[in-house]
Amino acid sequence: MGNKGILVGKYHNKYLMLGGQQFVLLAAPTRSGKGVAIVIPNLLNYSDSVVVLDLKLENFLLTSKFRAKNGQKVYLFSPFSED
Q1: Of 1, 10, 23, 50, which residue is the least packed, with the fewest Cβ within 10 Å?
Q2: CB distance 17 to 5 below 8 Å
Q3: In the UniProt record, does the keyword Transmembrane helix occur (predicted)?
Q4: pLDDT tens per residue, the chain (83 residues)?
């Protein structure tokens, strides 16, 4: 966890970051790479608070332990879970 800002892409092997406190909405079709290209890298890099709508829990399962290990409080709100 480190650089302040939101990772928005990569250009010539350099990461492009949107600095400052921003709100981001990411919308793209299913299986278009949102998770691996944008969501997961940001959950692993961004050290401030994040809220992610993650119905399948894929992003939570991949990143929650890392964030907790780095001092973040991690919560799962799953009101429609059957367990």
Answers
A1: 23
A2: yes
A3: yes
A4: 556 788 888 899 888 888 877 788 888 998 898 889 899 999 999 888 899 988 889 999 999 999 999 999 999 998 888 87
